[in-house]
């Protein structure tokens, strides 16, 4: 799924205007690694799927980008991407009105 950013991000001298989230390509190991990284940053063991930081980590993995990219996005873009991850993890990505898969 390609997501066009409302505000491009500059990372390592490259302008990133869209990211391609391959959420279906994530594995259980990706989930576990994102959890370890989230907890190492001081995250709390609550509902991980509702944590923006955790979802940013998964989005970075799904897009094959460093987490610094998802963290440097505008709040609107970062939140939109975190919501896509949340919907995917809860099996609700196809249930958003007006959205086609």
UniProtKB/TrEMBL annotation:
This is Phage tail assembly protein. Pfam families: Phage_TAC_7. It comes from Desulfoluna limicola.
